[in-house]
Fold:
Amino acid sequence: MGPKGSEIIPELLLSGYPSNRPIIKFDSPLIKQGFAQLYPDLTAAAGPWGVSFAANLTPDESRIGNWTEDQFKLALNKGKYKELEHERMLLLLMPWLNFLTSRMKMLMPCFNT
Structure:
């Protein structure tokens, strides 16, 4: 957050929820009714399932930097983490279903940056 509220910090783009940020308590009657609440920078969300945090999607080796191109493609097509059969599904907040109709050639620049 900057002095005027939420702001885009280019060097932090796609880096996920900041590990040094305190977790605020979500205590809204709307959550109990099935709604979700998002952090202003969209790096965390709370809903009936609990709190989910955005992952680091940068090309760092500790994140998707060690994924193969096939793992990237299949994660967006099947919603499996790293598309390893024994791995979990991506969380609902990851909009992988939105990419099912996307052409992979349009998405590959996201992987190759």
